[in-house]
Every structure is written in structure tokens, then in C-alpha cells.
Amino acid sequence: MALKFLNKKGWHTGSLRNIENVWKLEQKHEAEELGKHIHEERERDNHLAKGKPRVRQLHHQRSLPSGSAVPGALFEDKPHSAK
């Protein structure tokens, strides 16, 4: 007996109406979380701006010793010793 009629029931999780409702609720929840996250960041930035003057941080690149490795390489080439 085929059970294709089940997805037409209102309580079935595979019905298109229920799938659509779940998707809409998930989108709403994600939008609320994003709004909450943005609000927290703005509050934190405002709190930092009120307390101290902003100091601009400079990021310096570490200079590599000449000839040791190619920039961006994960490992250095080491000569293999013959024993």
C-alpha cells in the first residue's frame, strides 16, 4: 500500500506547507540573531569610544631572514644529510 497521502496531512513533517513554515521561521530567527549581533557590536564600539580615545594599531609584517623560505610557504626546505 502506498503511503503517498501522508505528506498531504497537516501534521506531516514532509508536507510542503510545513517545510515552508519551518524555512520562514528559520530565516526570521537568523535575521533576529544578526540584528542582535550588530546591536551588541555597536554598543561595544560606543562604550569603547566613550572611555578612551581610539588608538590606531599598526600591524607590522615580520621580516624573514634572507634566503630562508619563500613568503607564504608552510615549511622551510632543509638540506638532507647523507649518512
From TrEMBL:
<feature type="domain" description="CBF1-interacting co-repressor CIR N-terminal">
    <location>
        <begin position="10"/>
        <end position="41"/>
    </location>
</feature>
<keyword id="KW-0507">mRNA processing</keyword>
<keyword id="KW-0508">mRNA splicing</keyword>
<dbReference type="InterPro" id="IPR019339">
    <property type="entry name" value="CIR_N_dom"/>
</dbReference>
<feature type="compositionally biased region" description="Basic and acidic residues">
    <location>
        <begin position="37"/>
        <end position="48"/>
    </location>
</feature>
<dbReference type="GO" id="GO:0000398">
    <property type="term" value="P:mRNA splicing, via spliceosome"/>
</dbReference>
<keyword id="KW-0539">Nucleus</keyword>
<keyword id="KW-0747">Spliceosome</keyword>
<keyword id="KW-0175">Coiled coil</keyword>
<feature type="region of interest" description="Disordered">
    <location>
        <begin position="37"/>
        <end position="83"/>
    </location>
</feature>
<dbReference type="Pfam" id="PF10197">
    <property type="entry name" value="Cir_N"/>
</dbReference>
<dbReference type="InterPro" id="IPR051376">
    <property type="entry name" value="CWC25_splicing_factor"/>
</dbReference>
<protein>
    <recommendedName>
        <fullName>CBF1-interacting co-repressor CIR N-terminal domain-containing protein</fullName>
    </recommendedName>
</protein>
<dbReference type="GO" id="GO:0005684">
    <property type="term" value="C:U2-type spliceosomal complex"/>
</dbReference>
<feature type="compositionally biased region" description="Basic residues">
    <location>
        <begin position="49"/>
        <end position="62"/>
    </location>
</feature>
<comment type="similarity">
    <text>Belongs to the CWC25 family.</text>
</comment>
